[in-house]
Specification:
Helix content is 23%, strand content 40%. The protein has 205 residues and is an alpha+beta fold. Strand 7 (107-114) and strand 8 (117-124) form a beta hairpin.
Length: 205
Amino acid sequence: MRRKVCAFLGALVLAIAASHANAVVVTFDDQNPGIFGEPLPDDYQGLIWNNFGAANATGIPSGYWAGQVSGHVVAYNRSGATAQILSPLAFTLNGFYMTAAWMDGLVVSIIGSYQGQVLYSTQLMPSATASNYYLLDWVGVDKIRFESIADAGVHPGYTDGSGRHFAIDNLSYNEALTVPEPFTLALSLMALGAAIAARRRTTTA
């Protein structure tokens, strides 16, 4: 029985490792927004983007400029408002680079859910002068909600919402069902535990 347990755990580790090996990295560099352009297409790179736009960071000396990782284009939350990434099927959000668009002190609340049930949540305080990578490894989600919950301050010459913008680049995710979803994994572990318990009862009887 121990060999079966080890084999199961080994397969699980390999599945998780394979998920990162097959990750999709969204660089946004195939967009041509000018400086601030149109919203990201709804079905862009296999995901649904709600209130995300593309920005050419070369013309914006700010956190947008600092947010460049692979090229000159980054994604941002339009009007400084809540933005979401959705999918009809569960996926794994590995991580992304993020900067505050204008000033240090911005707080971004991020919530990952599946079929309306919250599975993960975190709060980030991205820098406005350096792009940092945030590793999440959120497995089995179908919606990621980004909300700027604290204003870093109003940048001179901009509207009140400007302090709430953030920029992201090189977002990494795995397509649907590349690794076990949390509920599926929990059921598998429960079944495994039941099998072990039954085995012990048989050998001690």
